[in-house]
UniProtKB/TrEMBL annotation:
InterPro entries the record matches: AKR, Aldo/ket_reductase_CS, NAD(P)_OxRdtase_dom_sf, NADP_OxRdtase_dom
Alphabetized UniProt keyword annotations: NADP, Oxidoreductase
Entry EC no(s): 1.1.1.21
The protein's name in its UniProt record: Aldehyde reductase
Residues reported in the UniProt entry to bind substrate: H106
Organism: Ilyobacter polytropus (strain ATCC 51220 / DSM 2926 / LMG 16218 / CuHBu1)
Length: 271
């Protein structure tokens, strides 16, 4: 699996398994299937309510801890200095781990909350409890404000990113700060499968529409975390590295940009 080098020297597999809205036995089987089939990067969050099931899947996989990359996130109601440390410890316990590979502030809830949370995360990072720290759903403005007080730069910004919302400007900005982009909803919540243009590109290369959508992002150096609980899709999603999108493909793909979000606007997060 190709890896992306973060600004602190940590490497993250460029394709991971997303677990948003997957719970219980369903998420257990998805994570177990993924790890059994070569995935080493699993993305979750406290608010998903599935960290304990992921813990069980990791243990049952038999894969050594150091060979896995686990991401989880700090929820909005837990932001703040002391509350961040408590929330982190709960996630650590629920995941059954000694450390987290990547810990993210899930959403921006104001300059003060972000700064307090980040201070706690920096301390956990320096104590070796977290291998890399970052943010999620942060705009350029949010990052600029965080950098005013941060001692450690964010390594990652995880955002909604797909063919319809390619995030070119945000990626350019983040790269200028040494921050890597991670794309959630890389398949546009299934909307890509309705596109005749993408079907034609997939057929041309003997690949699937999902492969085209993922390779478009991976070729830009963006980490992707497609969510699936179906065995065949989990296995097939990582089979993209022999796909070469040509200039005509990219022209068609770029024509599908519409700038529409499927999820909450980071500037209007009311939860």
């Amino acid at each position: 699996m190709k890896k992306v080098l973060l600004n602190n020297g940590v490497e993250v597999p460029i394709i991971g398994l997303g677990t948003f809205r997957a719970k219980g036995e369903e998420v257990y089987m998805a994570v177990k299937t993924a790890i059994d089939n070569g995935y080493t990067h699993i993305d979750t969050a406290m608010i998903y309510g599935n960290e304990k099931e992921i813990n069980r899947a990791i243990k049952d996989s038999g894969v050594k801890r150091e060979n896995l990359f686990i991401t989880t996130k700090l929820w909005n109601s837990d932001q703040g200095y002391e509350s961040t440390k408590k929330a982190f410890q709960k996630s650590l316990d629920d995941l059954g781990l000694d450390y987290i590979d990547l810990y993210l502030i899930h959403w921006n809830k104001g300059v003060e909350k972000a700064a307090e949370s980040w201070k706690a995360m920096e301390e956990l990072y320096k104590d070796g409890k977290i291998k890399a720290i970052g943010v999620s759903n942060f705009t350029m403005y949010h990052i600029e404000k965080l950098l005013e007080t941060a001692l450690v730069k964010p390594a990652v910004n995880q955002v909604e990113c797909h063919i319809g919302l390619p995030q070119y400007d945000l990626q350019k900005y983040c790269e200028s700060k040494g921050i890597k982009l991670t794309a959630y909803a890389p398949m546009q919540a299934g909307k890509i499968f309705e596109s005749e243009e993408l079907k034609a590109i997939a057929d041309k290369h003997g690949k699937s529409v999902a492969h085209v959508a993922l390779k478009f992002l991976v070729d830009r150096g963006i980490i992707v975390i497609p969510k699936s609980v179906k065995t065949e899709r989990i296995i097939n999603n990582k089979d993209i590295f022999d796909l070469e999108l040509d200039s005509e493909d990219l022209k068609v793909i770029k024509s599908l940009w519409n700038g529409k979000r499927l999820y909450t606007d980071p500037d209007n997060c009311y939860f």
